[in-house]
Amino acid sequence: MQELTSLSKLISLEGKTAVITGGARGIGLAITRRLAEAGATVVIADIDATEAENIIVQLKSQEIDAHYVKCDITVEAEVRHMVDYILEEAGNIDILVNNAGIYPRKSLEEMTGQDFQNVISVNLTGAFLCGRYTAEAMILRGNGGCIINIASIEALHPSSTGMSAYDASKGGVLMLTKSMARELGKHDIRVNAIAPGAIKTRGMLFQTSPSGNRSQLKELKLFLSRIALGRLGDADDIARTVLFLASDMAEYITGEMIVVDGGYLVS
Ligand code: NAP
User: Fold this and answer.
1) Which terminus of the chain is less hemmed in, N or C, by CB atoms within 10 Å?
2) Quick check: 211 pLDDT over 90?
3) Stretch 125-129: mean pLDDT, rounded?
4) Domain map of the chain by residue range?
5) Distance 146 CA to ligand 1 centre (A)
6) Distance 152 CA to ligand 1 centre (A)
């Protein structure tokens, strides 16, 4: 009988370098922590230096090999610099998690072309730029790699009033994932996506806070009532799925999107 690789070996990321965009808070921070726990050297690429540098200090105090590179993912030159910096610091990039994203709410009547473009720039163009330059580095090295795009269930259904730019951007992320998987498979680079439902993060709760709009709070309650598992998600629910996809547990999975929504879409 063929000997099976042990589970601990399959899930281990020892010797790998993982880059997490927007990795200093929310879902991104949970991902940073889990990938580090699995043994990866982690690099947080974030626009906000203060928050990220504090997190790096905390991670280093736990003997985690962690780095920060300031990067606005909408700016091509900054993305190229990010990749060069990581190659210099860590020597290689094995895993990219395209997590950074924004979700401002504006109705169609209020939304200008620039508002729409801003969301597309971060959520879709940013994921493309980071994926494109990281994949180039992975191809040059010739050792494969893994790209994980944090999409949303909004890639699969229109969510609510004011989210048309966001929904369009995440629909784009899903198709970008599939196209990149198709093109990069021959280099042994796997590209997958995760579609979170409602996850408790500062960004999401701020959007629906009491100081925000009453109808948004009502909407959140209605949303909650439709979640089969009866609770909002934790950032770690997404981080665990990222760990699975980043590891050899998912060695034969590419071009897929895993929905992590507590059963919202089936209700
Ligand atoms: P969050 O708490 O708002 O964190 C997003 C992070 O991305 C922040 O650190 C932010 O930096 C960073 N960022 C924003 N624009 C950037 C840019 N141009 N360049 C580099 N970094 C940038 O968000 P979250 O709730 O954790 O969401 C993370 C991802 O999951 C997003 O892609 C989101 O669309 C997706 N998602 C979230 C939910 C949810 O319910 N939370 C559901 C479905 C999908 P600043 O702090 O400086 O803004």
Assistant:
1) N
2) no
3) 98
4) 7-199+234-260
5) 20
6) 12
Residue 118 is given by DSSP the state H
- What is the 142 CA–ligand 1 centroid distance (Å)? 31
pTM: 0.96
Closest residue (by CA) to atom 3 of ligand 1?
203
d(CA 156, CA 208): 22
Which superfamily does 7-199+234-260 belong to?
A: NAD(P)-binding Rossmann-like Domain (3.40.50.720)
Could you identify the residue written with the tokens 């701020």?
206
pLDDT tens by residue, 219-263 = 888 889 999 999 999 999 999 999 999 999 999 999 999 999 999
Closest CA to 149 of 184, 120, 117, 124: 124
String of DSSP letters for 137-172: HHHHHTS-EEEEEE--GGGTS--STT-HHHHHHHHH
Taking only the tens place, the pLDDT of each residue in 35-81 is 999 999 999 999 989 999 999 999 999 999 999 999 999 999 999 99
Q: What residue's CA is closest to ligand 1, atom 17?
A: 72
Which residues are bridge partners to 195 per DSSP? 259
pLDDT at residue 163 is higher than 50: yes
Which active-site residues does the annotation give?
166
Locate the ligand 1 atom nearest the alpha carbon of residue 27 and give its number. 26
More confident residue, 206 or 83: 83
